Amino acid sequence: MGNIISFVHISLDGFIAGPNGEMNWISINQEIFDHVEKRIGKTTTALYGKTTFGMMEAYWPTAADKPNASKHDKVHSEWYKGAHKVVLSSSMKGSEIPNTTIISENLIEEINALKQRTEGEILVFGSPRATHSLLQHNLIDGFWLFVNPVILGKGISLFSAVDKTLKLTLSPETRQFASGVTELNYVVDKS
C-alpha cells in the first residue's frame, strides 16, 4: 500500500511560497538534487495540484532535450516521463497526457484507491492547494521537508488547512546540507 508524502521546500516560519507564490528564496544546488534524486528514483507516482502540474508539464517532458540540460534536468526529465502523474483538479476533466490521471471528484475514495494500488511512496510535489485538501481529509501520511534558513513573515502556509492537532514523528533520516538547508522527514501519527 502506498503512502502519500508531501515533498516541499519550506521556510523556517512554515511558508512554502511568498504571498504571490514567490519561490526565489529556496536554496537548491547539486548536493540537494543528487540527494533528492535517490529517493524520487524509488517512487513511480507523483501527485500534483493543477497549477504545479501545469508548471511541471511545461518543463520536464523536454528538459533533457535542451542543449544546456544539466545532469538534474536529464535525470528528472527521464523520471517524470515514466512516472504516473495524478492531478487533483475540479476543472480538468479528462487528459490526453500520457501516464496522467485526473481526480476531480470523490477525493477520499479516489486517493484511498490510489494508495491501495500503489507500492511505496506517492510524492506530492509542492502543490499547496492539493496538500491542503489532502490534509483536511487526513490523507497525508508524511512530510519530506527541506527547511530553508529564511523567515518570510508571510506567504502561503503549508499547514493553514490543519484544523486539529496533527502529531508527527521525526524519522532518523535527517540531513543538513552545506547551504544550510535541513531535510526533515516526518510520519503522521494516525492513531
CATH class of one domain: Alpha Beta
Order of helices and strands: EEHEHHEEHEHEEEEE
CATH superfamily assignment of one domain?
Dihydrofolate Reductase, subunit A
Give the distance, in angstroms, between the N- and C-terminal Cα atoms: 18 Å
Estimated radius of gyration: 16 Å
* Global shape: globular
* Number of discrete helical segments: 5
Proportion in β-strands: 25-35%
Helix content: 25-40%
- CATH fold category name of one domain: Dihydrofolate Reductase, subunit A
* Total beta strands: 11
Structural class: alpha/beta
Largest sheet entry: 9 strands, mixed
Unreliable spans:
none
Structural write-up:
The chain has 191 residues and is α/β, with parallel strands linked by helices. The chain has a domain at 8-13 and 41-148: Dihydrofolate Reductase, subunit A (3-Layer(aba) Sandwich), CATH 3.40.430.10. 28% of the residues lie in helices and 27% in strands. The strands form 2 sheets. Strands 1, 3, 4, 5, 6, 7, 9, 10 and 11 form a 9-stranded mixed beta sheet that branches. Helix 1 packs parallel to helix 3 (71-82). The relative contact order is 0.26.
SSE layout:
Blueprint: E1 3-11, E2 15-17, H1 30-40, E3 45-49, H2 50-59, H3 71-82, E4 84-88, E5 100-103, H4 107-117, E6 121-125, H5 128-136, E7 142-148, E8 156-157, E9 168-170, E10 175-176, E11 182-188
Parallel strand pairs: 1-6, 1-7, 3-4, 3-6, 4-5
Antiparallel strand pairs: 2-8, 7-11, 9-11, 10-11
In short:
By secondary structure, the chain is an alpha/beta fold.
Key attributes of the depicted protein:
9-stranded mixed beta sheet; Dihydrofolate Reductase, subunit A; 5 helices; alpha/beta; 27% strand; globular; 191 residues
